[in-house]
Structure formats: C-alpha cells, structure tokens
Amino acid sequence: MLREDAQQTGGAVTSEGDPIWRCAACGADVARDRDRIPLDGAATRAFVNPEGFEYVIAGFAHAAGCADASESSAYWSWFPGCSWRVSVCRGCGGHLGWRFSGRAAFYGLSIDRLKAP
Predict the structure, then answer these.
(1) Per the confidence metrics, is the pTM higher than 0.70?
(2) Structural domain range at position 109
(3) CA nearest to 57, candidates 101, 105, 19, 112
(4) CA-based nearest residue to 70, from 95, 47, 103, 91
(5) Distance between CA 17 and CA 52 in Å, rounded?
(6) SS3 readout for the chain
(7) Which terminus of the chain has fewer CB atoms gathered within 10 Å of its CB, N or C?
(8) Is the alpha carbon torsion for 46, 108, 72, 95 positive or negative?
(9) Number of domains the chain is built from
(10) What CATH number does residue 37 fall under?
(11) How far is the C-alpha of 11 from the C-alpha of 110, rounded, in Å?
(12) CA separation for the pair 10, 26 (Å, rounded)
C-alpha cells in the first residue's frame, strides 16, 4: 500500500498480507489478522454471559488496540483454567471483548464490535 493510501485506512500503512481488524465504533486499529487464533478449534465461538447476553467472539493472540478495563476474574469464565478482564478500544473506550489469562493467554473479541479487514 502506498503512503497516500494511509489516509483511507485510518492512518495505518499496511500491506495486502497484513490486514488489520478495527473498532467498529471509531475505526481505530485493534489487532492484526495474522494474530487470529482458533478457539477450541473454531474460527468463532458463541457464549452467553450470566445476564443472558450472547457474544460471538474471535480469538487473537495479541490485540495492541485493546486496553484492560477491569480487574481479573475467574467468575463464569468461558475457558476453564482462565481468568478474564474486560478489554476496551484504546481509541474510543468502547467494549470490544475480554483478555483471558491462565492456562492460555489470548483475547476473545466480539466480532460485531470489529470491522473485518
């Protein structure tokens, strides 16, 4: 991608081989597509929280555009042996998903809150 194309991609200079997932609310860079990981063998997984809200999440090994917004908790963890923290967009502060740690470390991000590359 040429430098002049950066303006059309929210200021990020990327190449075709390095697509970026962005925040659906503000367009900020969240994670690189090359950092996608399967969740228990699937590209996405659907989970329900204690209040009955369903989330369809995708896994990412890294998500530089996320910031932690809660203390760590093991309550109702969707992944046994892992605790979680709420993850928000560094650009706008919108809730994007969760950072899991413990037996594994990864991000589970709501696909409806991201713009796919």
Answers:
(1) yes
(2) 3-115
(3) 112
(4) 95
(5) 38
(6) CCHHHHHHHCCCCCCCCCCEEEECCCCCEEEEHHHEECECCECEEEEECCCCCEEEEEEECCCCCEEECCCCECCCCCCCCEEEEEEEECCCCCEEEEEEEECCCEEEEEHHHEECC
(7) N
(8) negative
(9) 1
(10) 2.170.150.20
(11) 23
(12) 10
Which amino acid is residue 12, in one-letter code?
A
pLDDT in tens, 9-59: 444 444 567 899 999 999 999 999 999 999 999 999 999 999 999 999 999
The pair of structure tokens assigned to 58 is: 């995708």
Task: Find where tokens 């950092």 sit.
Answer: 35
Q: What is the pLDDT of residues 62-101, one digit of tens each?
A: 999 999 999 999 999 999 999 999 999 999 999 999 999 9
Nearest to 84 by CA among 105, 67, 65: 105
Tokens of 34: 């090359």
